[in-house]
UniProtKB/TrEMBL annotation:
Boundaries of every SGNH hydrolase-type esterase domain copy: 6-177
Name of the protein this chain belongs to: Arylesterase
Gene3D superfamilies assigned: SGNH hydrolase
Superkingdom of the organism of origin: Bacteria
Lineage, top ranks: Bacteria, Pseudomonadati, Bacteroidota, Cytophagia, Cytophagales
Amino acid sequence: MADLIFFGDSLTAGYQLRAAEAFPALLQIRIDALGLPYKAYNYGVSGETSAGGRQRVAGVLARHQVAVFVLALGANDGLRGIPIRETVQNLQDIINQVRQKHPQARIVLVGLEFPFDLGPLGGHRFGQYATEFKALFRALAEKNSLPFVPFLLQGVLGQRHLNLSDGVHPNAAGHKLLADNMWAVLEGVLSN
């Protein structure tokens, strides 16, 4: 069995859901159904920023023979308005650590976009940040030649019936769509 690491925040962890309802567990069902030799590990930590992930990743890498590493951090950076360059540096450092410790590992980068119109909070400045935030993920994926999931929350964001009452975290039905969004890219990575 090869280790498949999902490294992210509350979106990966399945905030307020049972572990079996979070998208990494749903993807394990698909992996098993296809007879692919991967075991998914959910290293989602609610509230985690890219800086926190940068500090935490070495411990995760030391515990596994990583075959595939799915990097899904950045949402909390965006919500806190952390400068784009810091998020980019932190994510690049995580990618570098994975490559150094597990040179054969394939890394998948997961993109995010802002879930709301920030205009009312301060006009164009927030709009500019949101545009740069969205762009940073694709730029990192291209720079590092990584398979890329453009938008984890595609089809879920802003859909009240697919989110918890906070309007931010997907519910169990929402996680089924997150699994679909992830599988669209991950299936090809795991099948090759």
